[in-house]
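Figure 3 (text version): structure tokens given as input.
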């Protein structure tokens, strides 16, 4: 079951922050940042179940939504959690989706392409280690 956080839910935000730190040790998305995001209308936070099997952080950028982060607990990967989160978005919202993914993350690029995202460009030296970010978009309108 997908849950859209309405406003700050400390218990779920803590679970997201812990999972974020586990998967992305140097992530910007600390508990404090997630709390701030949950209070702002331009951010949407979706989670898969109360135990947070996965989460999707979205930013409303006027004419499109940007996927800021999507992650799934290791034991639930390849079980449709990420697709379920994106499908929820696709069933509720009609704005285009945009994201950046590491050039080396072939599994993620394949996942997005299977949903319908297309590569629209790249940003050289985007990540701190100098890696290129691949820009992908899913046109809805």
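Below: residues designed for each position.
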């Amino acid at each position: 079951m997908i849950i859209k956080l309405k406003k700050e839910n400390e218990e779920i935000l803590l679970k997201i922050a812990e999972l974020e730190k586990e998967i992305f040790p140097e992530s910007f998305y600390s508990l404090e940042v997630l709390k701030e995001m949950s209070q702002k209308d331009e951010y949407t936070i979706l989670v898969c179940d109360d135990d947070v099997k996965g989460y999707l952080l979205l930013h409303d950028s006027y004419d499109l939504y940007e996927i800021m982060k999507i992650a799934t607990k290791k034991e639930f990967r390849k079980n449709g959690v990420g697709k379920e989160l994106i499908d929820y978005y696709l069933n509720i919202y009609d704005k285009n989706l945009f994201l950046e993914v590491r050039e080396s993350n072939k599994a993620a690029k394949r996942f997005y392409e299977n949903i319908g995202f297309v590569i629209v460009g790249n940003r050289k030296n985007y990540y701190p280690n100098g890696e290129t970010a691949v820009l992908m978009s899913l046109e809805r309108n």
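The beta strands are 2-4, 43-48, 54-60, 64-72, 96-102, 118-123, 133-138.
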